[in-house]
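Morning, I've got a small favour to ask if you have a moment. The fold is given in discrete form, as structure tokens running alongside the sequence. I'd be grateful if you could look everything over and explain what you see. No rush at all, and the record is pasted right below.
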Amino acid sequence: MTSTDMPLATTRAARLQPLAMIGMVMLLGFFFANVEIQIEGGHGWATSLPTWRIEHHWLLDIFWGSRPMTGYHAWVFPFMALFFHFPLIFSWRWSWKLEARVMACIMIFWLTEDFLWFVCNPTFGLAKFAPEFIPWHIHWLWIAPVDYWTMSAAAVLLMGWSYWERRLPVRS
């Protein structure tokens, strides 16, 4: 059944699904930001946690935005990736488009979580969302870390492609 064969209510609901999903991912980001505020307080990027740290390595410059790798992040990032892949295992469905959607959701989650960590954190707030107050976000472009721009663009492209349907011309 194509989207043109579906009743109007179904196609309207199908159009709302991506917005509802993104809203839920952002809500998860809000909750996790608050969990991290309780864990880290005003000391971001696990600077005061009892965990190992690798401060400098050329691979960190390429894959990690020059930020230190910590034991905390080494566990929490794959945990979240597995968490977002769970629906694919639960439903026993996988495709490249579903994988793109999951990856976009992971990016939206981390962008939301990171930004809200600053906004909701009493030590920072929006007024201190700037490079002079956030030494672990090393590269900035305009008003935000470069990661925010690159991950936003990648998330939009992946999400858009994951919902894109090729429409074939109707033959009469």
Q: What stands out?
A: The longest strand covers residues 53-54. Residues 1-6 have pLDDT under 50 and may be disordered. The CA atoms of residues 107 and 151 lie 6 Å apart.
